[in-house]
Design goal:
The protein is mostly helical and 138 residues long. It is elongated and about 65 Å long.
């Protein structure tokens, strides 16, 4: 674990720890409600029923559900295209879409950490290969 965090600036490590902490907090704060809903007969693999039940409650629940549904849809399109654009590939994008079924508020911070670390490693490798190699003359 220490190797994963070494070699990165302290500010990046702190930011990533904050992202991951927010993701874990989201998981712990949201899933008890999902378990209650499933015990009452809900099917977590059916997002239409999930959001439909939340919207039917009206008021704040409807507002937050519609807001989250739109944010989730945008995340699913963006994460796949962003993974392809930066070089992670479409499989990673699909992985994060599937992870978002556990919770967008957990998948998004994990993606941000993965993305930043991938880009940092890619940039470091590019700068190493661009450095001129010293040739000693005999």
């Amino acid at each position: 674990m220490a190797k994963l965090w070494s070699g990165y600036p302290m500010s990046m490590n702190l930011r990533h720890a904050l992202y991951l902490g927010a993701g874990v907090a989201a998981l712990l704060l949201t899933w008890p409600h999902a378990f209650d809903w499933m015990r009452a007969g809900g099917n977590i693999l059916n997002p239409i029923a999930f959001f439909g039940d939340a919207i039917a409650a009206g008021g704040t629940a409807a507002f937050l559900s519609i807001d989250m549904l739109i944010a989730w849809a945008v995340f699913m399109v963006w994460v796949v295209s962003d993974c392809v654009r930066i070089g992670l590939g479409p499989r990673w994008g699909v992985f994060f879409v599937l992870l978002s079924y556990i919770g967008v508020s957990m998948a998004f911070p994990v993606y941000l950490v993965t993305r930043e670390r991938f880009l940092d490693a890619r940039d470091r490798n590019a700068s190493r290969s661009a450095d001129p190699v010293e040739v000693k003359s005999s």
